């Protein structure tokens, strides 16, 4: 019975997605996996204490990737804040820069510097 149900799911799903959507979905998942690896190597792992903040970061990243894949970047200028977060939160800035680099490399997209500031702020919350 279970095999039959699974087969029906495959049949129903066939043709629902275009190839480009599958590539975008793969890219999104790959970026999120790489980000989680980067966070983990920096000592940041999801736990009961930081679960809410960690989830907020991952949601932000998911929406960021979706916006980037549809060519919609945040145009808010946070350039003035960048120097502040860089000097006041050096560890969060370093992790944010690594994540920023991963996203640019994997999606082959130039990110705005404002997006890096958003990442650093989310990461700093996790480091507290």
Structural commentary:
The protein has helices spanning 2-13, 19-41, 51-69, 79-88, 90-107, 113-127. With 128 residues, it is mostly helical. The chain has one domain: PTS-regulatory domain, PRD.
Describe the largest sheet.
none
User: What name goes with the CATH superfamily?
Assistant: PRD domain
Total strand segments: 0
Quaternary class? single chain
Order of helices and strands: HHHHHH
CATH architecture label name: Orthogonal Bundle
What's the overall geometry?
Answer: globular
Number of helices: 6
CATH class: Mainly Alpha
Number of domains: 1
CATH topology: PTS-regulatory domain, PRD
In helices, the fraction of residues equals over 70%
* N-to-C CA distance: 50 Å
CA radius of gyration is 18 Å
- The overall pLDDT, averaged over residues, is 80
Features:
128 residues, mainly alpha, PTS-regulatory domain, PRD
Describe this structure in a few short sentences:
The protein is an all-alpha fold.
Please describe the topology of this protein.
Layout: H1 2-13, H2 19-41, H3 51-69, H4 79-88, H5 90-107, H6 113-127
């Amino acid at each position: 019975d279970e095999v039959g149900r699974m087969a029906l799911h495959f049949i129903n799903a066939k043709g629902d997605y275009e190839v480009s959507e599958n590539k975008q979905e793969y890219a999104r998942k790959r970026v999120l996996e790489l980000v989680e690896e980067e966070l983990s190597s920096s000592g940041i792992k999801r736990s009961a204490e930081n679960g809410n903040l960690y989830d907020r970061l991952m949601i932000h990243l998911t929406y960021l990737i979706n916006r980037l894949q549809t060519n919609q970047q945040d145009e808010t200028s946070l350039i003035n804040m960048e120097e502040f977060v860089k000097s006041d939160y050096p560890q969060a800035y370093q992790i944010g820069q690594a994540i920023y680099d991963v996203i640019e490399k994997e999606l082959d997209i130039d990110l705005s510097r404002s997006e890096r500031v958003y990442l650093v702020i989310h990461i700093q919350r996790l480091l507290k």
